[in-house]
Amino acid sequence: MFYLLLTLFGCLTGVTAVLFGFGGGFVVVPLLYRMLTASHGADDPINQSAMHIAVATSTCVMIVNALIATDKHRRAGNLIRHYLWPLGGFIAVGAIIGATAAVWVSGEVIRYAFIAYLGVTIIDCLLRRGFLTHATDVIPRRLGSTETSAGGVGIGAIATFLGVGGSVMTVPLLRRCGLSMSQATSMANPLSVPVALAGTLTYMALAGFSETNLGAWFIGYVDLLGFVLLTVGSLLGIRLATPWIGRIPDRVHAWVYIGLLVIVLTAMAMK
Fold first, then answer.
1. Residue 23: Cβ within 10 Å count
2. Residues 67-89: what's their mean pLDDT?
3. Cα 208 to Cα 221: distance, rounded to the nearest angstrom
4. Domains of the chain: which residue ranges?
5. pLDDT tens per residue, range 154-199
């Protein structure tokens, strides 16, 4: 049952990666956290490191999801180069900072930070103008230098600390630049790649400084078995979702995006 659930939720991560820019973190983190704490005793090292494992494995799954989804959107013509670079470089710098910080704090701190950030993001999307509505006659503006540099580092640090890929920050940011939901969510995938790569490598490397022994199926905090099953499922999900690229009405797309954030927030807040 454990393996089946991982594969099914992996399929869901593939769908959300293609259609909403969620590279996997918003599905993988709550799922793995709940499954690891439920299947291991309170004194088990895996239970005690459940949030770290969930976040690290999430960033690893995101590498595959984000790269494949990026290629799908490139073929669909949804990517706009000047929104990707140099923002992506600053995000990579922030990702290293975020992963380093996450290794040295407790899992509960990461969990509550995850919940808090989701709550703030949902409220911001609902109340600030520019997310739920899209004016088709407005020319999208370019990102400012501060949004690119400081914003990129902040996005990378927060995203890797929480294991969410950055889409929860890049999509609202690009949406307010005047992009459609289809374009904004498409851009979230390539912008998640530096988070996924930097985060995974940092979690693997820095876990070596910990004396915790998680077992043979782990490299650092990355659960290899979980990664394989989630990735297999995600490949199926990406294939199923690809025909829907660009076909969801913009306002519906925005509301479903917020709805998914609410579901994940509820899942993580439940004890």
1. 36
2. 77
3. 9
4. 2-269
5. 888 877 776 666 677 777 777 777 777 777 777 777 888 887 887 7
User: Positive or negative, the Cα torsion across 200, 205, 211, 216?
Assistant: positive
pLDDT at 16 over 80: no
Nearest C-alpha neighbor of 232 from the set 244, 243, 224: 224
Distance CA 66, CA 25 (A): 11
Q: In the 8-state DSSP scheme, what is residue 243?
A: G
Plot region of 119 (φ>0 → left; ψ -120 to 50 → alpha; else → beta):
alpha
Of 163, 176, 184, whose CA–CA distance to 230 is shortest? 163
Amino acid sitting at position 214: L
Task: Using the predicted structure, report yes or no on whether residue 271 has a pLDDT greater than 60.
Answer: no
Element (H, E) at 157: helix 145-162
Which pTM does this prediction carry?
A: 0.69
Which residues are CB-neighbours of 40 under 8 A, at least 6 positions away?
Answer: 46, 47, 50
Q: What is the Cα–Cα distance from 45 to 141, expressed in whole angstroms?
A: 49
